[in-house]
């Protein structure tokens, strides 16, 4: 079915990136490299209208993220509106900007779920990667989240510099009495793309990490649920990114730009509408940016005739662009892609990169320095 004729399904998952502001400087942040250019954040009333419009279109899950969403002083008000509308709300936070009282206010406003991220298993690793002192506060917030009656959901982003401490990561999660732990290996977009050679772990590191994660999964059965996500680059089939372009995911960036995924604004030749100027149902159903890779007609070979295309939708458009320069190409993670060698070359290049090479931390100074750099 053509993109033009392919009726869009509902945007079931709304990700509200409330702000790009963040006190941390993680070198794998998925925010755009030029995040510092987007300072004109949506105001409270516009966010509320976006929530109403999305809910009317069938959106059911709301992710509140950033940047650090807790830097928004209207967070409680937005959560209350989302609850009133019937959303299931999930706060994705570093924990900075929260304290016991604020967690209580968010609970009273109707927040359903809080996910706290850690950069590492120790104060030393965590605070180095965060670019600031954060570890002790995160521990306190994780405990406060649990004490407030929420399931404790922890997220660790893993890469070459911390994956060898997998055992310590899971020990920390267990000490904090986590109910769910997401061991998310870095995906290479945004700042992680700029640091890919330094962050991509070796196959041996991954295998060791995976074995430790599996042993913990067995040991903690029924007590702590552990999800381990292998990085794309070591797969031979691509992920069904966003479950298909413009199919269920709708991201609203801090400045109101509506995106089919958090990285889409980095794709050249596409423009995405802003909720300040357009109604959400037009954006979702009619805007050229959302229709661009919807359905299957845009596909080239080998995706077009692939019998797995309805399962993976050709993989990730942003990854195809970053690795091949053309977002219409098959995601090169797929070993049927004629560009799969670029993934293998990236692994080799990372292996040849010394651990001493400095990481580029996410901050306005580095943003200004590298935002004009060609990305592929
Ligand atoms: Fe943009 Fe995958 S991150 S399509």
Automatic annotation (TrEMBL):
It holds the Pfam family Radical_SAM. Residues 8-223 form the Radical SAM core domain. It comes from the Bacteria. PROSITE patterns: MOAA_NIFB_PQQE, RADICAL_SAM. GO terms for biological process: pyrroloquinoline quinone biosynthetic process. [4Fe-4S] cluster binds at residues 22, 26, 29. GO terms for molecular function: 4 iron, 4 sulfur cluster binding; cyclase activity; iron ion binding; oxidoreductase activity; S-adenosyl-L-methionine binding. Its cofactor is [4Fe-4S] cluster. It is an enzyme of class 1 (oxidoreductase). Pathway: Cofactor biosynthesis; pyrroloquinoline quinone biosynthesis. Binds 1 [4Fe-4S] cluster. The cluster is coordinated with 3 cysteines and an exchangeable S-adenosyl-L-methionine. Its EC number is 1.21.98.4. Keywords: 4Fe-4S, Iron, Iron-sulfur, Metal-binding, Oxidoreductase, PQQ biosynthesis, S-adenosyl-L-methionine. SUPFAM superfamilies: Radical SAM enzymes (SSF102114). It catalyses: [PQQ precursor protein] + S-adenosyl-L-methionine = E-Y cross-linked-[PQQ precursor protein] + 5'-deoxyadenosine + L-methionine + H(+). CDD domains: Radical_SAM, SPASM_PqqE. InterPro entries: 4Fe4S-binding_SPASM_dom, Aldolase_TIM, MoaA_NifB_PqqE_Fe-S-bd_CS, PQQ_synth_PqqE_bac, PqqE-like, Radical_SAM_PqqE_MftC-like, rSAM, rSAM_sf. Belongs to the radical SAM superfamily. PqqE family. Interacts with PqqD. The interaction is necessary for activity of PqqE. NCBIfam families: PQQ_syn_pqqE, rSAM_more_4Fe4S. Catalyzes the cross-linking of a glutamate residue and a tyrosine residue in the PqqA protein as part of the biosynthesis of pyrroloquinoline quinone (PQQ). This is PqqA peptide cyclase. The gene is pqqE.
